[in-house]
Amino acid sequence: MGNDTATLRALCGELNNPILTGAVVEPDSSPPSKDTAAALDQSFTQAAEAQAAIMAATGASPVERRAVVQTIPTAPKPYDAGAPFKMSRPSRLFFTGAPRSGKSWLAAQLGARTMELDDPIRAMTASAFGDCKNDDYVVFANQVFAWGEGIVSSKFPLTAPRMHFVEYMRETPNLERFGTADFWVTRLIARVTAFQKDFPGEMVVVTDVGSVSQYRALREAGFLAFHVQCNNVTRSGRGGNAVVPSLVTGIEQDITKKISQQPRGPKLWCVWNDPHYAAPSSRFISIEEFLKGVSK
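The chain above was modelled as a monomer; its predicted structure follows.
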């Protein structure tokens, strides 16, 4: 619990900035001033260094710690708080949010192609086992995902079957990096790029982002990020449970903090996806605003 708390604090420090929950902007807006950009870069770097220090305290290797200490592209320029939500139709989006918050449904309303981190694992499962129960798939997928990322823990130890699986995967073209950090998000970006080369103009949405490193990689690959949220009663009715990724917890704490500090500020990068309960703040983007604002 101590490590979880420390990690959450680091996430909150890193995510408490406009790149996640700032105002929506036109893609061709002028960049922020040099002073603003420098301040944002400094805040990202400080947060990353703090997370690296936590990783050091919990036994992470020097290579893992060095990978964490990096900056993220600066936040876009905020638009007028009184302006309606509108932006040029993006080609790449990803949604963060708790399970059953409505991310997949929202992607479908956009008419977008949904592509996920675990798509290759689902295809592999179907090829090897055919139809299987979702609970069985989750156990298998978690293991393959961990092996692909090179995660070693008491839950995912080094074993002879793992060694053979990793070597087998590395013999497949384009999978030579299987077993290294950020393997799955790197492959996802490559798949999206190939798809949009064949189908230019098609929008792609990713809905299963669950870590800061995945968030960072997608942002650097040109994806725009929106958080999707609903009332917990509604989420529970949709089949959601209390297990929420620390990334989501950090984002929603940051949203709450921003609203409390500036109740009538500009819109946040957050879509309120709940037909039964009103949004807790006018700073949320409604479903109608979002779908109408992302122009075709």
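The longest strand covers residues 224-229.
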